[in-house]
Amino acid sequence: MKKLFAYILGLFACAWLVNKAIKMILEVWGVLAIFGVVILVSWVAFRVIKSKDWR
């Protein structure tokens, strides 16, 4: 019975750690996605402005 309790406790600990890791990865990917969109929009705007003849 002690082993069964230890296995159940270990399973819950692993599930909790996996859940925390997934939440942290999703937060990091959210920030990276926002920065990626900002960089893409900036690059496109720079290309459009550079290609125009302003004279």
Structure, explained:
The model has no long low-confidence stretch (mean pLDDT 89). The protein has one helix spanning 2-51. Helices cover 91% and strands 0% of the residues. The chain has 55 residues and is mainly alpha-helical. It is rod-shaped and about 85 Å long.
Radius of gyration, rounded? 24 Å
User: Count of helices?
Assistant: 1
Overall helicity:
over 70%
Strand content: under 5%
Q: How does the overall form come out from the CA principal axes?
A: rod-shaped
SSE pattern, N- to C-terminal: H
Helix and strand composition category? mainly alpha
Q: Report the count of strand segments.
A: 0
What is the mean pLDDT? 89
Low-pLDDT runs of 5+ residues are none
Span between N and C termini?
84 Å
Largest sheet: none
In short:
This protein has 55 residues and is mainly alpha-helical. The chain is 91% helix and 0% strand.
Jot down its keywords.
55 residues; mainly alpha; 1 helix; 91% helix; single chain
SSE order and pairing:
Elements lengths: L1 H50 L4
